[in-house]
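B., you asked whether I could sanity-check this one before it goes into the benchmark set. Here's the sequence:
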Amino acid sequence: MLTQQKGAGSDTQPLVEIDRAIMDLRRGGFVVLRTPDTALLVAAAESVTDVALERFKTLAGMPLALAITRRRAAVLGLAEPPSGPGGSVLLAVPAGTPAALLSDLADPVATAPARLPLAVVEATIRTAADAAVELAKLARLLPAAVVATLSRAAVQRLTKSEAVLVVDGAHVLDYQASAARSLGAVSEARVPLREAENTRIIAFRPSDGGLEHLALLIGDPDPSEPVLTRLHSECFTGDLLGSLRCDCGDQLRGAIAEIARAGSGVLLYLAQEGRGIGLVNKLRAYQLQDAGFDTVDANEQLGFDADERVYLPAAEMLRQLGISRVRLLTNNPEKVAALTRCGIAVVERVPHIFPANDHNERYLRTKAARSGHLL
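And here's what the prediction gave me:
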């Protein structure tokens, strides 16, 4: 049985501060984001209202800007598409700009091309702007933030009289890695499954109390040998509802059955809905797919990368389970590469393919043609 423990390097306070900042943004509030060079007042573009925007202007006392991802800026015709992770682009926000326009610029479902009066501005606050966009992503909101540069006096006033939370930009950018390093097992139980009666589930939680990841131990895996392993990102629509738009439900149940047939193995159920963009944004992507975009383009229309998942949590969970070598059930070469980069040896890729249906055939073609899946 796995001993309940903290993960390595669990410096909890920065994680807790980011977790609080995430909730403030989701509620439509503001946070101060600080880097060595500057400080920004930040609000999520998705949730800002006209009333909130007026208060934001009063608190900041400086010109406003909208930070969006370079991918979203490319969709709007305001930047060249990035060749890799593209960072952020800043748009000047003229006086009198309504909150609805800022929200529209972040949301491809709402954006009307005729309503794009904002201009790209040169950024001397690039790292801070990148962190502001990353914070919106961590909040599972659209990746866009209203920002304004703050003077030192303004920061002191906001933190003392307005009780606005201050977070470190470097901690925001490192949050996912830090949360993964802090994972620890918090609960374990035997859960007989239809296809695998000898199954235990172990829950892992980061030290800030964030989202749990689950390890399903089927049979009695031998850590001295390569362990048959599946990394499965949660999919509410496919796993729970049986959606036909994807093959996730088939892959989940098929992996459990395959591991049981092999005698033992591990399935890691990772809290990374919608390839890391969250359920609400996945539903937005579905709406764009219904309008004709494929899965990759839909994510990029929203301003996300095609795949926002990280595999540090999976690697940390495997290490705590004593597993350093795996036979990986996947059709995705990037999972093999990512797990290898995280220090887990993938000694074999085991194909994991299921038949298409009328609803997911295009989705699977896109996986193969644009994401390199071996189908």
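One thing to flag: The chain has a mean pLDDT of 89. Otherwise nothing jumped out at me.
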